[in-house]
Write a structure and sequence with these properties.
The complex is a heterodimer of chains A (405) and B (70). Chain A is α+β, with helices and mostly antiparallel strands and 405 residues long. Chain A contains 15 helices and 9 strands. Helix content of chain A is 46%, strand content 8%. The chains are: A alpha+beta (405), B alpha+beta (70). The interface between A and B is medium-sized, with 21 and 20 residues.
Chain lengths: 405, 70
């Protein structure tokens, strides 16, 4: 009989650069494995590529963990961001409402649109590196480059004032708590964040600009069913949050990964054509991907030959799936020329596939290209094994990345 | 007659497409992204030279919206 103490705690312990041992073990022997969240609730983790992809692309199942019976992930009363119900005039999270919202937004994040942003992103990146070089070596690359680059870009894209970036960063971090903040921190951050974005919308209504929030405000004001006011505010919050907590962490992790074994960094310096492939392989091989993406299973199913009962909360281990030898040959080998590297699941799969993924890819390519061109002697000040892991937050990364050059 | 229709045929399910644009990047001769992000197949019968790219695009599609018929 399984006792409570037999169930491993999640997230698993890990070192800065290596995958947790559980990933390979579960892929091999236990494709649906019970773990215990910081809330005390049980979830089952999926670790194989085919299983993770199958469940993510199954539109029957939701990530809405506010439903009765769903697990709480975080130790806050609401169980974390996936457990927070939307207000009554917001219907963009699932099903037809989500489809309507995606159709409205996806045109603003096409590959072509994001490519048009590349020169501007490049100018921001060069300015940040200028400032970092002027301040002198060593520097915390997260504080001086990794965080400010995507933040400046999302602020420009949305039309939000970049000088308020520290407030967005704090609200975003608190919203994604696993164990780091209390329920009252979360309530306060959400209230302030919503009030801030509401005020910004008022400003866009009065003085529309050439930015996405102005465009969405006009669409919402048409009151034709495309986007309610509450949905507009939630979209603004969501885009600001995503602009802070994802690409910035990945810039830090990319730097750590490439400098831990600097032949990968030197290869990019020697041949900038390797930048896109290197970025894909960094995305695939990231071991600090955070807790994963949940799905609440609403009917009895079978996954990977194992029964999964109705009312189970499943957690997709995207980063484990990316190391599955059944999808990627020699999965633990870094290969910037890997032909199917972009089949990784780092941006998810299915109807909720990351909306901002084309922007993230351009930002990461620009970030890497700029570092390689401007800072060819870049090195980790304290070594890769000393990089401090960000803990207690749903997304993974490093607290800081001290570099010298 | 059979030999004439034995090539690779491609179709995009626009109801399922999430607008990632990965296919347009992988096989630009065969897929394009409309202004609203949704993908269109530029041809239903890609050239032999594009077969590998089309298969890679189908495998990378986040929503499995690309259907191939051999």
């Amino acid at each position: 009989m399984t006792t409570t103490s037999d169930i491993p705690s999640f997230p698993f312990d890990k070192t800065p650069m290596e995958p947790p041992a559980e990933w390979a073990e579960f892929r091999d022997k236990c494709p649906v494995a019970k773990v215990r969240m910081p809330s005390g609730d049980e979830v089952s983790v999926l670790s194989r590529y085919s299983d993770v992809r199958e469940v993510l692309t199954d539109s029957r199942f939701t990530r809405d963990l506010s439903r009765p019976g769903a697990a709480r992930l975080a130790n806050t009363d609401d169980g974390g961001i996936f457990g927070r119900p939307s207000s009554s005039d917001v219907d963009i999270s699932e099903g037809n409402g989500h489809r309507r919202w995606r159709r409205l937004l996806s045109g603003s994040f096409t590959m072509k649109k994001m490519e048009q942003w590349r020169p501007r992103i490049q100018a921001i990146a060069d300015q940040l590196v200028d400032d970092m070089i002027a301040k002198g070596s060593p520097a915390d690359l997260m504080a001086d480059f990794g965080l400010p680059l995507p933040v400046a870009v999302i602020c420009a894209l949305l039309g939000a004032p970049a000088q308020d970036k520290d407030r967005f960063a704090e609200w975003s971090r608190i919203s994604l708590t696993l164990t780091r903040y209390t329920q009252s921190d979360v309530d306060r951050a959400r209230r302030e964040f919503a009030m801030y974005v509401s005020a910004l919308v008022e400003e866009k209504r009065a003085n529309p600009g050439e930015d996405l929030l102005s465009e969405l405000t006009q669409i919402s004001d048409a009151e034709d069913g495309r986007l309610s006011h509450g949905e507009l505010v939630q979209t603004g919050m969501g885009l600001l949050l995503a602009g802070h907590e994802t690409t910035s962490n990945m810039i830090g992790k990319m730097t750590g990964l490439l400098l831990a074994d600097r032949e990968h960094y030197d290869a990019v310096i020697a041949d900038p054509e390797l930048i896109p492939g290197t970025v894909e392989e960094v995305l695939r091989m990231d071991t600090n991907a955070g807790i994963g993406i949940p799905r609440f299973i609403t009917e009895d199913i079978e996954v990977g030959g194992c029964p999964v009962a109705k009312d189970t909360t499943l957690m997709m281990l995207l980063a484990s799936a990316n190391r599955d030898e059944h999808r990627f040959t020699e999965p633990d080998r870094f290969d910037p020329r890997r032909s199917n590297a972009n089949q990784h699941l780092t941006f998810g799969a299915g109807p909720h596939f990351c909306l901002g993924q084309p922007l993230a890819r351009v930002e990461l390519q620009v970030a890497l290209g700029t570092m390689a061109r401007r800072l060819p002697g870049l090195a980790l000040r304290d070594g890769a094994d000393a990089l401090p892991l960000r803990k207690g937050i749903l997304g993974g990364g490093f607290e800081n990345v001290w570099v010298r050059w | 007659m059979g030999a004439l229709v034995s090539g690779l045929q491609v179709a995009v399910d626009q109801e399922v497409c999430c607008g990632s644009g990965l296919c347009a990047l992988t096989a630009p001769a065969v897929f394009d992204q409309r202004d609203d992000g949704i993908v269109v197949a530029l041809t239903t019968e890609p050239a032999d030279a594009d077969y590998d790219a089309v298969r890679a695009a189908a495998a990378a599609c986040p929503t499995s919206a690309i259907h191939l018929m051999e």
